[in-house]
């Protein structure tokens, strides 16, 4: 049975001329955004602010996380025109900050690392004034694959923890919490990148579990953190266990700052790419 949404979790999503023009460019370039694929409640706000989160390597993911709205059908071959089309779209849209993420492509020998890197390089080549944030999968924490992507030197290297480790086996059975920690550690300790992570709450985790994750992230010197409320995309996805009160999100933000994060964005509608440009500006 679905829980009734409290007043603070209700958001009226409206259209706008900007939203329609952005979607038109994306359609013409045959590009996907996680904004649309994940049905993000903030997409209009982000588009208005000159930020978009592109999802590369197709719409179909090889992993099956129980919270995610991205489809899990057999992946299609990589589109060789995608890197250039995405770079051109960033230029046409005049984006100040481009966030590039992807589905997991465990079916590929390099898990898509070279394609990811080519997208990053061309976005920089075509848009030298645009800052780039890469929101990457874990690549099974393989350093040879992480090198390929991280050596493009993004302004921000983002990798989401997603949920507390106690719930990984149940919610993200094909992923590994320690792999995620290794990705963030490698990005900071070896590559010297600005790092960022994000997680969702409302799955039944405790306050202490969330704080412990924050402490683990600071142990690997993660710079920025986003915390948001999980919203069930459909009845086929795991149900919401709790709608976390905004006061608790405020507590997480306060504790995060005390722990030494340079920026913590915490709230019911916060997502990994929410206010991404503002996070980067503070660096």
Descriptive key words:
eight-stranded mixed sheet, alpha/beta, about 35% helix, about 280 residues
Structure description:
The chain is an alpha/beta fold. Helix content is 37%, strand content 14%. An 8-stranded mixed beta sheet has the order 1-2-3-4-5-6-7-8. Helix 9 packs parallel to helix 10. The chain is globular and about 45 Å long.
**How would you describe the shape?**
globular
Q: In angstroms, what separates the terminal alpha carbons?
A: 43 Å
As a percent range, the share of strand residues is 5-15%
What is Rg? Answer: 18 Å
Main beta sheet: 8 strands, mixed
Helix coverage percent: 25-40%
Integer average pLDDT: 86
List how many beta strands DSSP finds: 8
Q: How many helices?
A: 11
Q: What order do the helices and strands follow?
A: HEHHEHEHEHEHHEHEHEH
**Could you name the ranges where pLDDT drops below 50 across 5 or more consecutive residues?**
none
Q: What would you call the structural class?
A: alpha/beta
Strand arrangement in the largest pleated sheet: 1-2-3-4-5-6-7-8
Q: Topology, please?
A:
Elements: H1 17-28, E1 32-33, H2 34-37, H3 43-48, E2 51-56, H4 82-93, E3 97-102, H5 113-126, E4 131-135, H6 143-150, E5 156-158, H7 168-171, H8 177-189, E6 195-201, H9 207-219, E7 224-229, H10 246-259, E8 263-267, H11 276-281
Parallel strand pairs: 2-3, 3-4, 4-5, 5-6, 6-7, 7-8
Antiparallel strand pairs: 1-2
Helix pairs in contact: 4-5, 5-6, 9-10
